[in-house]
Each structure stands twice: as structure tokens, then as C-alpha cells.
Amino acid sequence: MFDTLFIGTSGLLSHAKGLRVVGNNLANVNTPGFKSAQLQFGEMFEQGGGVLPGGGQANQGTGVSTLATKVMFRAGTEQSTGNALDLSINGNGMFTVKRDEQLLYTRAGEFQFDAENVLVNAAGDKVQALDDKGKLVDIKLDTALNRSMPKATSVIKLAGNLTSTVATPAVDATLNGLTVIDANGVSHTVNLSFKDLTGGSYTVTVTDGVTGGATLGTGTVKFTGGFPATGFTTMNFNYVSTGVPSFAVQLDFNAMQTSTAASALNMASQDGHVAGVRTDQSIDEEGTVVVRYSNGETAKGPRLALAEFLTEGDLEQQGGAFKKRSGAPVRYGHAGDEAYGTLASGRREGSNVDLAEEFGNLILMQRGYQASSHVISTANDMIQQLFDMKGNR
């Protein structure tokens, strides 16, 4: 009978632990990347609890014990955050972070750059990337990524129409104020003139855009069937000005045409740019850090590392994340490779807690606790009766 007290007590303690696990799950229903857990129960028994009719020994139950909690690794609900640095994983991969000198793994993709321009998660752990040698490194926006160096113009692409009407005198055209940028990031302008030579040919003259500017180069562009003829699609000139190092520029005529309409020319693009400073940063769907600058340019930085494990048992919880069990294998790679999964930018994985399931478990734990309490109460009453019988004898 006294054993019944111990059995009931084991039920109380075990279901109290179960209530704690359920309560922890419910408390983290809004924690990004949280993985719910379930407490595993195990039967306790002793050998030789009685003799079976055939002469064998019977096992007698002695209550319940709790085993390890099982982490449920199913994916949580995906949530939109609007933060271009947040990421969610669609697949088996996990983000790799470094806390002090320990590597941890998580599905929570809330990221930001700290005061030292190092990418960290909400807990302050440093997010890891793979370098060219496959080594894990911190993601940091160093000096090279904080600014965009100027680039001299090398190609100017022209577009539009040149009048091809045969007329006397010939119809000429001009295009003034084309921007060119030198190696120091300083903008200059050049002017173009197209002199109709008839027969679809034009003499192109490039002059400096300043008043009374010098001629910088001449060339010929020829059209066949309304489009630039082979061998006449480009021309080169050197930009030379006082105090400016000479640099070569190519005019690209491929997007031009001729027709009977009035001339209407424009500069489609030029590939130079002035210096710029970092204005924004994001992480794309490949896990690459993309930096944007005030001059409209972009640059790519490190690429996030994703980790993959053979089984869920290779991980154990630690401080809001997971650590690798001793001796467990782990592989590192990038989003889109093999089974690591793909990334969604501007989104995060929420908690995978199922409220309906957890409230059902809550009721079960409560019923188990109440039943164990009744067992103890009943056993206590029976013992009390026994003592009363002995006292009245």
C-alpha cells in the first residue's frame, strides 16, 4: 500500500514536468524560429512482482518516469517582416551563428548589422558565411563595402533616329551634353555632331562640352537598311581636358537607326559613375549580402552559410538555439544547393507551436495530475483506516 503512494507521487512529478513543457511551448507561441517540445513518458516496473500460473515471474508496475523531451522540428508559420535582412528557410538547412566561440544552429532568421557592421541575429550571435576556402567567417561590412569607388566612363550607348531624307543641303544632327565621368569621379560633358554624307553615311565629330571646346575625335557611322552596318557600329575617342588624365571612351551606335522621321537622338546609358557611400543593404534569395550606394551602384558581399544534419537527434537545445551533439556530422553549404533549401528575403519563420494541440496536451496533463492525486488520497485513506483499526483493537 505504501508503494501506491510512491506510484502516485511519480505521477504527480511526471505530469508536473509535462505541464511545464506545455507551458513553455505556449509561452513561446510568438517566438521566431521556436521549436515546440513534447515530454516522453516511460513506465517503471520491478522484476519478480508475483508468480504466474505457469511458474514465470510477473513484472509489477511501480509508477511512471519521464524521459527526454522530444523537439518537434516541423517548420513554423512563415511571416512577412518587411526587413530586407530577414530570411526564412524552405528546406532542411539551418542558419549557423557563433556565440562567443561556440557554433550554434537556428531557424530564426531575424538579422541586423550591429554597431561594428557585423551581421547578428536578435540574440546578438554572429551570423556565419563561407569564404572561398570553405571556412566559416563572420559577415562584416568592411571598408571596401562601405563605399563605391568612382569609375571612368568607357562606353556610351546612343539611341534614337537620324533623318535619312535625301535633301539638298544635307540634313545634319547634333546631340549635346553627353555625360562622361573621369577616374576621379568628376563629371564632364561632350557634344556630338552628325554630318550627313548621303548614302546612309555620317561623319561623327566629338567636341568638349565646354564653350569653344576642342575636337576630341572624329569617325564615320554607316547605315544599311536603316541600321548600323557591320564595321560601323562603334567609334573611339580620348577625352582630354586640362587637369584631367586622358581616358578612352567608345561610342556605341547599335541602338540607333535611320528613317524619314525627324532626327531624335539620346544617350541610352554610360557605364561610368561617381563615388558613392553605402545607403542600404539587404540579403537576397541566394543568401548574398547586397549593398546599395548613393550613386545607384550595388555590390555583393559574403554569402550566408547553411548547415545540414543527418538526423534531428544530432542536435540538442541550448539557449534559444541548438548545438551539435559530440561526434555528430554536419555539412555546410549555400541556399539552393542540394538539400539545404531555398531562402525567402524579407520573411522569417515563426514558432511551430500548434495551439490546439498544446491545449489538448494541457488537458491531458491536468487529468493525469488529478488522477495521480486521487491515487495518493485513496492510498492515504486506506492507510489511515488501517491505523484506526490497529488503534481500536
UniProtKB/TrEMBL annotation:
Residue ranges constituting the Flagellar hook protein FlgE/F/G-like D1 domain according to the UniProt record: 89-143
Gene3D superfamilies: Flagellar hook protein FlgE
InterPro entries associated with the record: Falgellar_hook_FlgE_sf, Flag_bb_rod_N, Flagellar_basal_body_rod_CS, Flagellar_FlgE/F/G, Flg_bb/hook_C_dom, FlgE/F/G-like, LlgE_F_G-like_D1
Domain Flagellar basal-body/hook protein C-terminal: 345-387
GO cellular component: a single term: bacterial-type flagellum basal body
Location(s) in or outside the cell: Bacterial flagellum basal body
PANTHER family, per the entry: FLAGELLAR BASAL-BODY ROD PROTEIN FLGG, FLAGELLAR PROTEIN
Record-stated family: Belongs to the flagella basal body rod proteins family.
Name used for this protein in its record: Flagellar hook protein FlgE
